[in-house]
Amino acid sequence: IYLKSIKVTYYPKKGFPYTMTADEATFREATGDISASGSVVVESKDGYRFSTRSVRYSLKTRELTTDDVVDLRHSGLDLKGEGLHAELENGRFRLFKNVKAVFRNKR
Fold first, then answer.
1. What is the pLDDT of residues 37-56, one digit of tens each?
2. How far is CA 62 from CA 12, 15, 73, 98, 103, in A?
């Protein structure tokens, strides 16, 4: 199924929900996988935000992945790297290569 201007919200068993927006996506009913592209942004109510060009989401594993460049921000920390694996159920994020971090003072 092809979708335009999507907004998907994921509610983990514990913690804050995540909302993903993108220009377009493909949903595969048989596997429950979503491939989103074009200005992909994922935000959580506790302040996590990351943006990238494309992302894959698996309903089965509840994980987001991409090979693209990712900008991730949260509470005084800016991260940029290539490739992402995010486990939404437990809030774990992993950037794979060319990772750069900037720590900002909270005022």
1. 999 999 988 888 999 999 99
2. 9, 14, 21, 25, 29
